[in-house]
């Protein structure tokens, strides 16, 4: 088994405005290409796989645009599943009760980092 790669530097903290556009990035889930995103909500950076719990498709209607008009919920652009940005839990829509797959993220020293794990690896290694 190969060691889990170290934390990945995704973007500067100030690239994520409060309830703003997300930073979207490529990664591998069990070796298959997927995308993830991080956004700032209520001051905290959260991260999830960019994959709806209803049909495995990307959520954003335009790259990095995940939140609804009032900037309160993550909305799937396909059939409108509504997720709580704090937890990734789907509160309404065709997959209510399911959740987005969370990513372990941390903000420190003005940067946002993602921590790979055994199932989720960087798409590109330095
Ligand atoms: S694919 Fe997201 S709600 Fe159907």
Automatic annotation (TrEMBL):
GO terms for molecular function: 2 iron, 2 sulfur cluster binding; metal ion binding. Keywords: 2Fe-2S, Iron, Iron-sulfur, Metal-binding. This is Rieske (2Fe-2S) domain protein. Residues 42-114 form the Rieske domain. InterPro entries: Rieske_2Fe-2S (IPR017941), Rieske_2Fe-2S_sf (IPR036922).
